[in-house]
Amino acid sequence: MISAEDLAFDAAHIWHPYTSLTSPLPVYGIKSAQGCELMLSDGRILIDGMASWWACIHGYNHSRLNAAMADQLSKMSHVMFGGITHQPAIDLAKLLVEITPDTLETVFFSDSGSIAIEVALKMALQYWIGVGATDRNQFVTVRGGYHGDTYHAMSVCDPVGGMHSLFASSLPKYLFADRPQVQFNQSWNESDFESLRSLVLQNSKVVAAIVIEPIVQGAGGMHFYHPTYLRRVRELCDEVECLLILDEIATGFGRSGKLFAMEYGKIVPDILCLGKALTGGYMTLGATMTTRSVANGISASGPLMHGPTFMGNPLACRVALESVRLVLEMDWLGQVGRIELGLRRGLEPVRMLKSVADVRVLGAIGVVEMKDPIDVAVVQRELVNRGVWVRPFGKLVYVMPPLCISDEQIVCLTGAIVEVCGLK
Ligand SMILES: *Cc1c(COP(=O)(O)O)cnc(C)c1O
Fold this sequence. Notes:
Layout: H1 4-13, E1 30-34, E2 37-40, E3 45-48, H2 51-54, H3 63-75, H4 87-99, E4 104-110, H5 113-130, E5 138-142, H6 151-154, E6 175-177, H7 194-202, E7 207-212, E8 216-217, E9 223-224, H8 227-240, E10 243-247, E11 271-274, E12 286-291, H9 292-300, H10 314-329, H11 332-347, E13 356-362, E14 365-370, H12 376-385, E15 388-389, E16 396-399, H13 407-421
Parallel strand pairs: 3-15, 5-6, 5-7, 7-10, 10-11
Antiparallel strand pairs: 1-2, 2-3, 4-12, 8-9, 11-12, 13-14, 14-16
């Protein structure tokens, strides 16, 4: 049990994600986690609806992932990547090159999703320098996006509703089109693409790349947009000859019902960012993949100027290798389909509630959008009291559980959400 004294220390000294230090939201002590369950330090057990923010797809304390980590730990947990290489990085890169579209041939390993985005943006800029089109230094994206919290990643996140509006005055100003409106399962309407199309055409000679999350806009609002929109993005990039950067950091490795959400649009990006579930939630690791032609363009201007201390960390690469192998061995599509069905059934009753604006499910992602902002501390406590771990934000109560969640656990998880959403 974490002592009251330690919790007080935590509140006074330790920053948690997106909190104030003077009036922090409550935190819950966790002492261990197993499968799809978190054990609170007071012994209560919670069903996990978050997969630790998309990452922990195989559940916690997984024997194969543990064994892979232990094996690597006994050999070397870290070594610099400058002038050195190692089997975990090589094997993981081989596997990523194999399972992603054929044209994505090169891999840059970095520390996290945000850094994978930073690297992608730098790659795009350096590519245009390399091929002699230095005017192409603008990024275009859509509102409602989220690409991370580091400085340049912030500049392509939603500028208003996003988490970073405080910094707006010191961020580079890039070009934002309207958020895609036609939802995943609605019928396509060509006018949805007009905003992005006209913005890009007006700036066609200065756009370095379009940056977008394929199909699922995650932390920017949990919207699922239409596959045709994604197709149109690719066509537009080809038309004006700019690069396409896809951010699959949240969606990669099966979550959306495709191994990669870009498959819904049957398109391939020039640069692809991976993270989160890449290591099965065991370690922090990002990967930025690109085509041979982009790699050649970048290299024409010299070396790519990025090289974090923990680049290609062997522990992270080894556990990622094992996690991706597990995905490929398991019936991930069957599991995601089963979870999708369970979430649809279980969340459907909230549609009746006056306080609820929308319910949507895609793959193993379930979203309840309320009409009003949620009191996170209260809702969180009510959910914990009902034995589930769900972290609401804004107007959203959303889940993306580990893929090993059982049908009974889905019933408990969704049942608790239905009850709590109906409380007031
Ligand atoms: C989480 C996330 C990021 C940032 O990844 P971090 O590992 O938190 O830096 C970027 N893009 C998307 C779509 C994400 O969901």
